[in-house]
C-alpha cells in the first residue's frame, strides 16, 4: 500500500526518500521555492521577501512549505548543503536564499537568469 502524507499541497509517496521527493519536485517544476508558509500566506519574513520578488518578476513557481514536514525542512538543507530556508531552485539548480535572490533581483541577474534558462515570465512588472 502506498501511504501519503495527510494534507498539504505536496503529498509524498512515503516509499520515496525525502531526497527522491525533493529531486522529483525540482526536476518536474521549473521554479520551486522551499519556504515557511505558502505563497499566499508566508510565515517568515525571509520567505515573504522571496515571494514578493517572484510575484513582482511574474514568474510562476511552486511553493513547498517546510513547516508541513520536519523531514522536508531538514532534508532540503542537506540536499542543498545550505543551512536556512527559504531556498530557490530553478530548472533543478539551487540558486540561493533570501539575500542572494534579493541581490540578484536588485542587479537584474535574477530576471536574466530566468530568461537565459528559458523560464517564461508573465510580464516584467513595474
Ligand atoms: N540570510 C538568510 C535568511 C534566512 C534565515 O535566516 N532563515 C532561518 C530562519 S527562517 C532558518 O531557516 N533557520 C533554520 C530553520 O528554521 O530551520 C537568507 O538569505 O535566506
TrEMBL record:
Keywords carried by this UniProt record: 2Fe-2S, Iron, Iron-sulfur, Metal-binding, Redox-active center
Does Iron-sulfur appear among the keywords? yes
Q: Which residues hold [2Fe-2S] cluster?
A: 44
Molecular function GO labels: 2 iron, 2 sulfur cluster binding; disulfide oxidoreductase activity; metal ion binding
Among the Pfam families in the record, one is Glutaredoxin
Which PROSITE patterns does the record match to this protein? GLUTAREDOXIN_2
Is Iron there in the keyword field? yes
Question: The Glutaredoxin domain covers which part of the protein?
Answer: 31-95
In terms of Gene3D superfamilies, this protein maps to: Glutaredoxin (3.40.30.10)
Of which family is this protein a member?
Answer: Belongs to the glutaredoxin family. Monothiol subfamily.
Under the heading PANTHER family, the entry gives:
GLUTAREDOXIN FAMILY MEMBER, MONOTHIOL GLUTAREDOXIN-S14, CHLOROPLASTIC
Q: Which protein, by its recorded name, is this? A: Glutaredoxin
The organism of origin for this protein: Afipia felis (Cat scratch disease bacillus)
Q: Which gene name belongs to this protein?
A: grxD
Amino acid at each position: 500500500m502506498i501511504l501519503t502524507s495527510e494534507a498539504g499541497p505536496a503529498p509524498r509517496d512515503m516509499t520515496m526518500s525525502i531526497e527522491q521527493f525533493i529531486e522529483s519536485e525540482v526536476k518536474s517544476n521549473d521554479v520551486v521555492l522551499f519556504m515557511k508558509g505558502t505563497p499566499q500566506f508566508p510565515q517568515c519574513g525571509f520567505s515573504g521577501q522571496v515571494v514578493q520578488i517572484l510575484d513582482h518578476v511574474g514568474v510562476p513557481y511552486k511553493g513547498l512549505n517546510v513547516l508541513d514536514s520536519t523531514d522536508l525542512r531538514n532534508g532540503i538543507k542537506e540536499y542543498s548543503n545550505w543551512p536556512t530556508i527559504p531556498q530557490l531552485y530553478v530548472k533543478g539548480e539551487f540558486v540561493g536564499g533570501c539575500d542572494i535572490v534579493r541581490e540578484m533581483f536588485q542587479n537584474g541577474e535574477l530576471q536574466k537568469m530566468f530568461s537565459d534558462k528559458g523560464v517564461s515570465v508573465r510580464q516584467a512588472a513595474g
